Amino acid sequence: MEYAGLIVKYKVNRLLEGEEEELRLLQSNRIDVKPHYQLSVIELNSIYMEITDKHYGWKGWLTFSTSIIWLGAFFVILESSWSTFVGEYKFICINHNLLPAVLLWVLVVVVSIPFIGVTTWLLRKESFRWTHYPIRLNRNNRMVYVFRLDGTVLSVPWKEVFFTLGRGGKSMGIESWDVRGHVLDKDRKTVLETFAFGYVSTSQDTVVAYWEYLRRYMEEGPKEPWELLDYCLPIDQRKEPRILGLQRLWLEVNGQIFFQILLSPIFLMAWIGRQFAMATCKIPVWPKEVEEACAIEPGDPYVKDGRTNPPDAGLWFP
């Protein structure tokens, strides 16, 4: 789980760092690796590819954990209020010595309210927003469309984006990496805005393979990416099926069956949070001008989306 860009915003109005320039990913540079879509593609056709944001895979973890803390703090306030004014301390009123109990109650409230405030703020990073934040790569007009966290859309030419490997936060001492795009000022050194593509890994090699999948689609055509694409996330203009949410969380440790089974109770709790988050979130809708720019021709031979998934397609063991 990596929340850079969601909880803590990317740093902007700054100069490019040396590491970013060193790890730059050039649009015209073909890398000799096997490309992989990393279960992030929503739609693919001759005109555009739509992928999800990097936070979609583990959506629900933050909601569940913050909800537990929020409910705990609220229960403490509720129980303290009952005890002070209704329950076991009512004998204090008879003795005309209510002040100590009220002061204790005030202390409990003062300590608990910051927990409620912070967890509410964190909860709203996943819930009561959008189910996901899609990104479209348009081969036809060479544009990148990014659905921002506030619901607005960034439109930027593919060739003008400065792509690089982005260093994420550490989890249990292990660093994570993703593909980040920087929108630069006219000086080509000042970062005005940053976005990330839909995959995070502790391995730079797998992130590069993911980048190469997207790059080849934009630079070399849809044929190879279309052939490599086995499964599209069925979340275009709809909320995900409930079972898909559990499967997607399960695949955060894909290929490690022992840990998948061991962590099953935690996945289930995160799935409960995911259900709440998805239920309270809106489905992202692209502006009319984006949809018009992404219109595909009838009979496009390279169309794949959630409706074209094979009937037996599954995510448990892809």
Oligomer: single chain
Low-confidence blocks of residues: none
Mean of pLDDT: 90
In spatial order, strands of the major sheet run 1-10-9-8-2
Largest β-sheet summary: 5 strands, antiparallel
Query: Structural class, judged by helices and strands?
Result: alpha+beta
Number of helices: 10
Domains, number? 2
Radius of gyration: 24 Å
Give the end-to-end Cα distance, rounded to a whole number of Å: 21 Å
Tell me the β content. 15-25%
String of helices and strands? EHEEEHHHEEEEEEHHHHHH
Shape, per Cα inertia axes: globular
Number of strands: 10
Percent in helix: 25-40%
Walkthrough of the structure:
- The protein is of the alpha+beta class.
- 39% of the residues lie in helices and 19% in strands.
- It contains 10 helices and 10 strands.
- Strands 1-10-9-8-2 form a 5-stranded antiparallel β-sheet. The protein has a 5-stranded antiparallel β-sheet with strand order 3-4-5-6-7, covered by helices on one side.
- The radius of gyration is 24 Å and the shape is globular.
- The model has no long low-confidence stretch (mean pLDDT 90).
